[in-house]
Design a protein that fits this description.
Elements (H helix, E strand, L loop, with lengths): L6 E5 L20 E2 L2 E2 H11 L4 E6 L5 H4 L5 H9 L3 H11 L3 E6 L6 H6 L2 H4 L4 E4 L3 E5 L3 H12 L3 E6 L9 E9 L2 E9 L10 E9 L3 H6 L11 H8 L6 E4 L2 E5 L3 H13 L5 H10 L3
Parallel strand pairs: 1-4, 1-6, 4-5, 8-12
Antiparallel strand pairs: 2-3, 6-11, 7-13, 8-11, 9-10, 10-12
This protein binds uridine 5'-triphosphate.
Length: 289
Amino acid sequence: MQKKITRAVVPAAGFGTRLLPATKAQPKEMLVVVDKPVIQYVVEEAVQSGITDVLIIISDGKEVLREHFRPDEELERVLEAKGKQGELEVIQSLNHLANIHIEYQHEQKGLGDAIFCAEKFAAGEPFVVLLGDTIIEAERPLTLQLTEVFAEKKNPVIALQQVPLSIAHRYGVFIGEEVQPRLYCGTAMVEKPPKDNIPSNLVFAGRYVLTPDIFDALRNTVAGVNNEIQLTDAIRLLMNKRHVYGWLFDGERHDVGNKLDFIKTNVLLGLKRPDIGKQLRDWLNETKF
Ligand code: UTP
C-alpha cells in the first residue's frame, strides 16, 4: 500500500519586501491575522491534512518562526497562576501540533532554491509544499484535497485558482486539459508571464504535492524571472517525463504578502470570528469611509 504523505515544507525565508518596513525585523510569516501569526494557519492546515513533520525554510534571524511552536514554560506558569485557563490551553496546543524542523536558506535565490533546501528532509519521499505567506480557506483543508488526488494519480499535483486574466501575470500560470471535474493534466506552465501574453487564467495557489525527482529538476534549473530559481521552471522540467496535475480548488486564497490583501484578510477572517465578527460588521456598516 502506498505510504501516506506526512512531511510538509513551508518556505519562509523571503525578504518580504512588499511589506517593508513591517518585515524588517519580523518575518512576514509572523504577521498577525486577527489573533494568530500567518505561519500558524499554514501549519494547522498541514496538520489537518495528516502531516506530522513540518520543515520551515528560514533565513538568518527568522528563528522566531520555530519559537512560536516551542513550549514556553514561564508563560504557561504565569497563565496558570492567573487562572487564564483558556489562554493556557491555546498556548499548550501549539507545543505538540507537529514536529517542527528548521533548515536555512542562506541566500534568497527564489522559491525553487528554498525548496531545494528540503532535499534531506524529504528523504526520497513525496511531500507537500505550503507557502508560508498564504492562508487558504476551504471546506476541507486544501492540502488534504491535494494528497487525495496524489494518492490516485501518483504524480505531482498543484493547487490552482481562477483569476481574471488582467492579474494572471503576477502568478505562475498553468495550462492544461480538464481530465475530470476540477482536475487538469498540465501541458505547459510559465512563471509570471508578460502581461500581453497570458496563456490561461488558471494560476498556482500556493500549495503543491511534489515527488522527490523535483530535486534533480531543481539542480538543472537556472535562474528565471526576477533572476530567481523558480519552482515553476523545475516543475515544467518534470513534465518532460511524467504527468503533472492541477487541482482547481473550491475556496479562498489569502496572500498576505502584500499590503492590500493583508488588510483584506484581517477583515474577512475577523468577520468570521464569533468573538469579534458582529462588532466588526456593525462598525464597517456604521462607518462613513
Ligand atoms: P514571495 O516571492 O511571495 O516572498 O515568496 P518574498 O520574496 O519574501 O516577497 P517580496 O516579493 O520580497 O515581498 C513566497 C514564499 O516563498 C518564500 C517566502 O518567504 C514566501 O513565504 N521564499 C521566497 C523563500 O523561502 N525563499 C526565497 O528565496 C523566496
